[in-house]
Hints:
This protein has ten helices and ten strands. The protein is α/β, with parallel strands linked by helices. The chain has a six-stranded mixed sheet, sandwiched between helices. Strands 2-1-4-5 form a four-stranded antiparallel sheet, with helices on one face. The radius of gyration is 17 Å and the shape is globular. Adenosine-5'-triphosphate binds at residues 11-12, 15, 17, 35, 37-43, 55-56, 199. Residues 2-241 form the ABC transporter domain.
Amino acid sequence: MLQVNNVEAVYSKIILALKGMSLHVPEGKIVALLGSNGAGKSTTLKAISGLLSGDGGQITDGTIEFQGKKINGITPDVLVKNGIFLSIEGRRVFKDLTVEENLIAGAYTRKDRSNIKGDIEKIYEYFPKLRALAPRKAGFLSGGEQQMLAIGRGIMAKPKLLLLDEPSLGIAPLLVKEIFQNIKKINQEEGTSILVVEQNANVALSIADYGYIMESGRVVMQGDPVTLLSDKDISEHYLGIG
Ligand code: ATP
């Protein structure tokens, strides 16, 4: 479904953030992208979703393929229409719109407008809290509630590939578990392929089919979650799990 091949990316023409980054997200799978601060995880997501140039960056080598077609250089709006949706910290919800208006806005690229009501209902089943908050302006929601809404908006777009940037950031531990269980449910019920970037390796690997660990702009380890978590060196060294 998604193939990142040896991508090199720079910011301001000089800061080398990706140095031969490669990964693969197979159709219908959840892949976790892990690693310490500054490893290049967010840059990888930006490169995939076409948002790098908006941040003063560019891809200088390598290719990104989505469903067999090269997508580097394609603008974010075209990528969204083709089924790639990025949910990113800070750009997640429209604060002046209500929760329900945010969900409706999430479906703006869809051609099948008839089933939007039914899909909103589905989001409320995944995240019952959002139903109670439906008329509330999104700007007044807590961080965790906004995170649920951001994921809900992503689902409304019916993407083939959902990119999630640190869904656990700033969220209470109990809620993190709930959000990740819902991400897994969405993957299973909708068949959405998911690439999730996380600092919280434990929770990400608990739902992932495969994991990559990045350091200094490239992948240094990869494997299925059981293998990654059972290796003491990897757990302590790269995942911060002691
Ligand atoms: P974190 O977990 O802290 O978000 P990350 O793995 O997502 O880290 P990136 O945000 O991709 O890391 O950053 C990779 C490198 O690129 C870092 O050295 C960072 O300082 C640099 N970088 C990121 N964004 C920019 C930017 N807009 N301009 C210049 N350098 C940047």
